[in-house]
Design goal:
Blueprint lengths: L9 H12 L6 E5 L6 H16 L3 H8 L6 E4 L18 H10 L5 H7 L11 H11 L9 E6 L6 H12 L5 E7 L7 H4 L3 E4 L5 H10 L4 H9 L5 H7 L4 H19 L6 H13 L3 H22 L16 H5 L7 H16 L4 H16 L1
Parallel strand pairs: 1-4, 1-5, 2-3, 3-4
Length: 372
């Protein structure tokens, strides 16, 4: 991963390159990168530039291209799975991580959980990860230059790990760089953010996404449509550009949900169907539940745009027999804000390990009222 491989973010790339060439590299940096904006890809390319700049050679380049250089380290969320039965840490998942970075540099946390088969669990960056880093950073640099650690999805640092990292950051070993990557700094400790040089990544320009998709072999009109409706999110653009089984399943769940909610007014026994629906969703892992709620938020957003006939911004294309135009007539300025708030509240509840069955049942009853 080189800077040329990073889509968009041209101004920030120039700023980061300048810091390396002028040897003014902040030892602790934070990339605030909303989903699909390329924080991981940029961090890897930047780390490679830092290490290559200090000791350029073919051997160095090869090790970095394979993400196997002894001076390049990664911390990322993990949990136990079929292979790792106890004390999960980044070190134990490095092989899978390298594959993920090479194949899905714009992937999100859920994509990573699927990769290592922990989609039903909550990953974390824990104490063992930081102990590993402390050990590595206490050693001399392999090539006498910089040592760099990329901490991806830094929001998943637990309290103990955060405190240990803070001590390391406050008195960093010579020629070490920490690059934190997060989607929102609101979920990070203020003490950590205050010690970082913060860079905010912007949504990627539509033209850059379209060009990227065309280079990937996506047909011109589909590339244009995907880029236009991605809202600057390259991951989303890639999903739109190909058939997506996950979204198709979510749409089926959503259709069952709203149909039952509408039918409750005519037949009170339909409440039992809502209970069964809630049990179905609750039987899936929390990450799946969160992704469904995100899908629902996006679909309701499209519905309000459809209601007001702002067709050029409507990205939803049904794959089921949902009558989206008829449905959108029920979504308006009187209920959209409250619907969104309820979905957001449910998302927070799931993320906080609340009882999913109760959360989705409560949400279903509220939705029934709101769309009537």
């Amino acid at each position: 991963m080189l800077f040329n491989d990073v889509v968009g973010q041209e101004n920030l790339k120039k700023e980061l390159e300048k810091s390396v060439f002028q040897n003014r590299i902040p030892h602790c940096q934070l990339f605030v990168s909303p989903e699909g904006s390329g924080g991981l890809a940029l961090a890897v390319a930047y780390a490679r530039l830092i290490i290559e700049g200090s000791r350029p050679s073919e051997s160095t380049q090869l090790k970095l291209s394979e993400l196997k250089h002894p001076d390049l380290h990664f911390l990322f969320p993990t949990a136990i799975n079929k292979e790792v039965k106890s004390k999960p840490s980044s070190e134990l998942f490095l092989s899978s991580w390298r594959e993920f970075v090479h194949k899905s540099p714009y992937g999100n946390l859920f994509d990573w959980y699927l990769k290592i088969d922990i989609e039903n669990k909550q990953g974390k960056i824990g104490n063992d990860d930081v102990e590993y880093l402390l050990n590595r950073f206490s050693l001399k640099s392999f090539e006498g230059g910089w040592k760099v650690c990329v901490i991806w999805m830094a929001e998943k640092l637990n309290l103990t790990a955060t405190n240990k990292l803070l001590k390391l950051i406050e008195e960093p070993p010579k020629s070490t760089v920490f690059i934190f990557v997060c989607e929102s700094k609101n979920n990070l400790a203020d003490t950590l953010v205050s010690r970082c040089q913060v860079y905010n990544l912007n949504p990627i320009e539509k033209e850059a996404i379209e060009l990227f998709l065309k280079k990937k072999g996506v047909e011109n009109s589909k590339a244009k449509f995907s880029a236009t409706n991605s809202n600057g999110n390259l991951r989303k653009a890639l999903i739109i550009a190909k058939d997506n089984e996950e979204d198709r399943l979510f749409e089926e769940w959503f259709l069952k949900w709203v149909r039952t909610a509408f039918n409750v007014k005519k037949n009170k026994e339909e409440v039992l169907e809502l209970i069964n629906w809630s049990k179905t969703i609750s039987s899936n892992g929390r990450e799946i539940q969160k992704k469904f709620l995100e899908f629902s938020m996006e679909l309701f957003r499209n519905a309000i745009l459809k209601h007001y006939e702002i067709e050029q911004l409507v990205s939803f294309r049904p794959t089921t027999d949902i009558n989206f135009k008829a449905f959108s007539n029920y979504i308006n300025e009187k209920n959209i804000e409250e619907i969104h708030n309820e979905l957001e509240s449910a998302y927070i509840g799931i993320e906080s390990n609340g009882n999913p069955n109760m959360i989705f049942m409560d949400l279903s009853l509220k939705l029934t009222r709101l769309i009537q």
